[in-house]
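Case study.
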Amino acid sequence: MVCHRASDRFALLYRLLWRISRGERHLLENPADSDAMRAVRYAKAVDRDVYRMHAYVRFARCEMEGAELFATWHEPQHRILRLATPFFVNRFNNMDWLIATPDGTAAWREKRLTFGPPAARPPKVDDNVLDGLWTAYYRTTFNPARLRVSAMMAQMPKRHWATMPETASIRGLVRNAGKRVTDMNACSPEPPPAYAERLAKRMAAVEEPAGKVEPLDALRREVEACRLCPLHAPATQAVFGEGPRESDLMFVGEQPGDHEDLEGRPFVGPAGQVFDRALADAGIDRSKVYVTNAVKHFKFEMRGKRRVHSKPSEGEVAKCRFWLQREIALVKPKLIVALGATAALGLTGRRLAVTRDRGLVVPFNSISLLVTVHPSYLLRLPDQNAAEAEYGRFVEDLKAAQSWCGA
Amino acid sequence: MPLNLLQKLEILADAAKYDASCASSGGEKRNAGKGIGSVTGQGICHAFTPDGRCVSLLKILLTNFCIYDCTYCPSRRSSNVARARFQVEEVVRLTLDLYRRNCIEGLFLSSGIARSADDTMSDIVRVAKALRLEHGFRGYIHLKTIPGASAELLDEAGLYADRLSMNVEMPTEAALQRLAPEKSALDIKRGLARTRASIEAAAEPSRMGTSRPARFAPAGQSTQMVVGADSSTDRDILAATTRLYASYRLERVYFSAFTPTGHPASGLPDRPAPLLREHRLYQADWLLRFYGFSLVELDDALPDGMLDLSIDPKLAWALVHRDAFPVDINHASREMLLRVPGIGTRAADRIIAARRHGTLRLAELKRLTGSLKRVQPFILTPDWKPGALIEDARLKERLVPAPRQLSLAFS
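After joint prediction, the assembly is written out as follows.
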């Protein structure tokens, strides 16, 4: 605030101190008080001026005593030179620079900062990067179809234009913008250049698949392109099953969750971790079994900034059965473990009572089926003891499946 | 005749200017150390062009040669635009030269797809790598990632860049298929997903025995979609945006109103999208992210799926929900204050701070909000009651600023 040029800044500061010392301790926190507000306004004006110095200084490269020096003339609104220099020290530490202002100079030479008295404005230094490349970039990046002069003026007051070489082109850009847009709108499609056809042919050639494709990989590609239900649109990707081509044991879950959707692999999120632990405790090697889901896309609803799991409908499960059956036909497991009610529904087309039928191996078409809970159920149990007991039962179910397969 | 650096710059900056983002904010703060450059966290706009947009980064394409044929893009293969290609060293030198003159905060590098996604991505990564490792550049780097590029290249890009972005281009997959038939929505979503996972992994505190990248795009990732090139409604766009934010933890979803490029293609609207539409979409996006509105609530401000161009979406919502007003300035919760047209997040916080020191009347409120015109019909203070004003059928007309010609004159 002291750096502000307003002549009443000290009187205002004195008054604020007086009022604070007389009991209005929280004066500065009251944005509705007119003294406090003016102080804040002064402080903000100084901050803004510092920011503009950081933004609008343009260093021109010149030679001085055989060394490279980057020099500039800048006219700040307030007395901010000392306030603004640390930024330049932090940023341009390894080059020598000089900032001259009507209030004084700041110089960084051989990693030492010195402040000097005001100097007369030096003549403009020619610098072909600033005058050529930078100005050309400024001109080109402007989009005439979006002309909004007032927005530019509000941010970049004319006070600084004299020391910013690119601003010399503003007048022409604004004047010609209307005509450029009219001309662009009047353009009609032109015939494509000769190379367009060649590139199109090359693109088409690339897309043809080469070599022999594994049947599971071929199925995966079909699933990735699945549009049977609308779940594909909000999801990232279809999550296809994972495991060896022919496995004795196949696990079917409900649907991918947030993590699975991002990674494109089944059972890698929190429920997947429980599943992995339980598999290990049951003595099952995950890399030797096939793991997939009844529904291949993540169904979710938005809760604030998060995606929250949403249960797939019977219709969605039924549509996705098409893929599940083809997966089963390729993997040819001896036993399928349905993890939870949706998995059982996807496999059998019927609603089963998981808690009643769990742990029993029942015939299912030409294969066998064992139903148990979904690992995410174990995560939802609030009671620690109940959770441990349920986890134990889950591991027992997995062991039962393993020994049935081995028998 | 080969192009010189200036000519290349003109072609490749022109081709890059349709990317809306120029932000250099966010991420880690750092100083030059033994190299050159710093990141302040807030970002700095070093200039403003007469379109009112900030110039913060050197925003260029590495090349505008492209094997794709995305209808809305002036660099598509069937366009007659002049073509150029920068050498890696040229971009590095240009960035450093402009940076030393304090013209830019850093580099925003994108590219047409020359040869293949992987070739292009690896060229982009080479530029960033050279800047960081060979020249000790510690300024801001924003890299565009190319859908379909390999995971290894994405990981390397995250190592050198402050921000990564991959454009979703269109609000719906159907529109993408129609206007950018060779781009794959699946590749784009997978790219965004992978980047999110990498950013989150790098942000986690390191644990013993787990491998963790030391640094990955500390300023996060963003994306952009073109507005008005297809028939998607504002509701489609906002629904897609909300989903993108939640799915991929994006810092920003940028909207880019479709404007003519001078290289029109058939199959596109022959009129530009109103810039006001883009502005209203940003306002609605803000309501969703910072004002506690849900998309379902905003439906009331979206008759036929479109935002009213003449008024901002919060006012549109308030006019439908007049029963929620007036709001008592001295007692209302922050959530309710934020629903009042004309009170933004900053004004709401200032009101809450100020009312601890005493009752707020209109005079104090005016100091906190700047103007009372829009606020007054919806609030209650000890010296003001809106009375029948809130029920006034012509309230909208009273609040809509009279249409005025955008001024082109400047002295």
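Observations recorded in class. Residues 405-411 of chain B have pLDDT under 50 and may be disordered. The longest helix of chain B spans residues 185-203. We will return to this complex in the next lecture.
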